[in-house]
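Bump. Still looking for Enoyl-CoA hydratase domain-containing protein 3, mitochondrial structure tokens.
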Amino acid sequence: MPGREENLLLSDLDSGGVLVLTMNRPEAYNALSVDLIHALTGAVRAAMENRDVRVIVLRGAGRGFSAGHDLAEVLSFESDDEHRALLESCAAMMQLLDSCPKPVIAAIHGSAFAAGCQLVATVDLAFAEETARFSTPGVNIGLFCSTPMVALSRAVSSKRSLRMLLTGAPISAAEAAAIGLINEAVPSERLDETVMSVAREIASKSSYVVQLGKAAFKAQKGMELADAYSYCNEVVVENLKARDASEGISAFLEKRDPEWSDS
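Sorry for the wait, here they are.
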């Protein structure tokens, strides 16, 4: 097992409640080592418990977002159990990001390959430089991107995801936006501005309402249409009990800015 690295993940929380997590393995293109996966998992769990955190932004240091799993580390493992532990910890991290009650936004520059592309497909919103590239290239090295496929196939259509998976060919940020893998491709000099503007806009809302809404969105997607409406009707009934619902409606009618209590 490789030795534990220091400062794998940089963390910065601004006064508006936007937490920026920067994967900090630039020499390895922010490859998802066991230690980095554990660092990300711990940081997201801590953010979920921190009332000051309203939105999480995920980015990479150095030349790009993330190259995926650390292949040198993968080859260093000598047993199925080690491989299984790596994959299970990564899957758990991806599921934690998906279920995190606070919105998670990715800012992508350079490349997001394999499990790095999986991260992009997993988070709630994603914005990329126009020059960024995305791929699931495992087929090119004899190791099919089976686990990235889980997130990718849920983010974009079957034919789009299968083309990426079967060819391993990279797609541009413009194509990633067109197929719904990311929200928008922007000029490099505007990436941070765009991401932080969206993050701060979300952070300015009632965190109670944002978290309730994100959870409801995730829950209703897998339901039949009638069940989804029935479920969401109950979500609205519950939402109407919140102080922020009364405050928000009153502020709208009185033509003033709401003062959120996050409850």
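DSSP finds eleven helices and nine strands in the chain.

Edit: fixed formatting.
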